[in-house]
Amino acid sequence: MTPETQVVKTDHQNTAHEVRLLAEALRTAQRLVALTGAGISTESGIPDYRSPNGLWSKQAPIYYSDFVRNPAVRRRYWARSLNGYKRFRDAQPNAGHHALALMEDAGRLHHLITQNVDRLHTKAGSRKVVELHGENSTVHCIECDYREPRAQTQERLEWENRHIRLPADETGDAEEVKPPNCPACGGLVKPGVVFFGEPVPADVTARAFELIDEADALLVVGSSLTVWSGYRLARAARQQGKPLYILNMGPTRADEEAMLKIEAPAGKALQTIAGELGIFIAPS
User: Fold this and answer.
1) pLDDT in tens, 80-101
2) How far apart are CA 57 and CA 79, in angstroms?
């Protein structure tokens, strides 16, 4: 770690004093861009990936090439959806999402880039959002490009598999599961998210780098930056000489490049930061 980097760890009960350091650092930013990851949504009941209790500790990630070529992988994916989609569908924004939306309204947040597919930033009221890895509310056919709401696909999936009882942690081949097909052409459908091994759309990547160019500081929230699509944005900011600030529980790929790293739960910390920047936060 470079001498310029400050790392401050906090406990879950008392974050206000420590995150004021970060709020003070952000005070001079006129075009602050935030990059968020799974860690901001854990307080909404959506698990992250790499923590000890994250998704990868329970199930292997789905790769695009496997999803397209391997029927067993598609069955396993949709079996997980049978079990888990309702939790994602019903999740609500937490204090961190609302704080970032209020920062945007107050002109203290220039734009937001998220690696999340849960749309919780949009639900919270953020309007300037780039969804780096797509979003989970739509489904499209990879053969004819037919599109429909994910909820509509889920209804067909649940109806066609209504007689199947799956274990809560389904990870096998799920041989009895019938994946949904395109109602227009019968082809393969997938959610509007970027799977592992699938490239981020070029226009999305270009817009994200434009925002880094426009920014005068980058705040990373709830991301380990292990995935290249996020880390390269942090690296680009530092290569341009712009300050990089990190709010994340646990290590990140860019710890040595950050000017300030705070380890604290995102929701309370972002509320404190917004308050320190003069933004009124209504009591919850």
Assistant:
1) 888 888 888 999 999 999 999 9
2) 18
49-54 average pLDDT score: 52
Neighbour count for residue 5 (Cβ, 10 Å): 16
In this structure, are residues 34 and 257 in contact, taking their beta carbons and an 8 Å threshold?
no
Read out DSSP for 183-196? TTTS-BEEEEE--B
pLDDT tens-place string over residues 101-129: 999 999 999 999 999 999 999 999 999 99
> Catalytic one among 111, 133, 140, 163?
133
CA distance 44 to 94: 6
Q: In terms of Cα–Cα distance, which of 38, 59, 42 is closest to 193?
A: 38
What are the strands of the beta sheet with 217-221, ordered from one edge? 6-9, 260-263, 244-247, 217-221, 32-36, 111-114, 129-131
Q: Collapse the DSSP code of 33 into the 3-class scheme (helix H, G, I; strand E, B; otherwise coil) and give the result.
A: strand
Would you call 133 a catalytic residue per the annotation? yes
φ/ψ (deg, to 5) at 17: -60, -45
